[in-house]
Amino acid sequence: MNQNQISNNEPQQSTQGEILRAEVHKPQISRTVIIILFLIFLIGYCCGHICSRMFNNPLEKMQILYVSRSEIMDLEKARVEHSQDSEGRMFFGEINKAISLIREESMKHENNYNRVIFVGDDYVEGRNTHSISKEVYEKVIHRLKKPKDSL
């Protein structure tokens, strides 16, 4: 009987050992599956991001804004002709300050979809372009006038 008991116990021990081995391997399989699923998700996300960049063309939304020197000079000449300033000074005699203000005001319009360029001639060609010279000019004149009005 001892042998029967021993032989009956042996299969039970081996099945318990197999159960323990199976339990040990289950978390490893789960980790492997989780890692594989995470990698598939990551690759899918990267491919989707790249495809969305290719098919969603941000250049269609982009505008090129230009500041024309000749437009600003024409606006200033018209202001000087119509002003009652006896000296008739361009930009109230503060040309260097006006130039820095023109650059400062112009660059406020630049962001991801707007690029600002400065033009010296009357000719600008391109899609989605329009001049902001008048708007910049009006802000510069307003800022140049402020100190004189406050005196």
Protein model, in words:
Keywords: Membrane, Plasmid, Transmembrane, Transmembrane helix. There is one protein chain. This protein has 151 residues and is mostly helical. It folds into two domains: 56 residues; 93 residues. Helices cover 66% and strands 10% of the residues. The chain contains four helices and three strands. The chain has a three-stranded parallel beta sheet with strand order 2-1-3. The longest helix is centred in the first third of the chain and has 54 residues. The protein is elongated, with a radius of gyration of 38 Å. It starts with a helix and ends with a helix. 9% of the residues are buried.
**Low-confidence residue ranges:** none
Number of domains: 2
Question: H/E element string?
Answer: HEHHEEH
Could you give the count of β-strands? Answer: 3
Question: Which strands sit side by side, in order, in the main sheet?
Answer: 2-1-3
Please compute the radius of gyration using only Cα atoms: 38 Å
Shape descriptor reads elongated
Question: Which class do the helix and strand fractions yield?
Answer: mainly alpha
N-to-C terminal Cα separation, in Å?
119 Å
Largest sheet: 3 strands, parallel
**Number of helical regions:** 4
The fraction of residues in strands falls at 5-15%
Helix content: 55-70%
Q: Give the overall average pLDDT.
A: 77
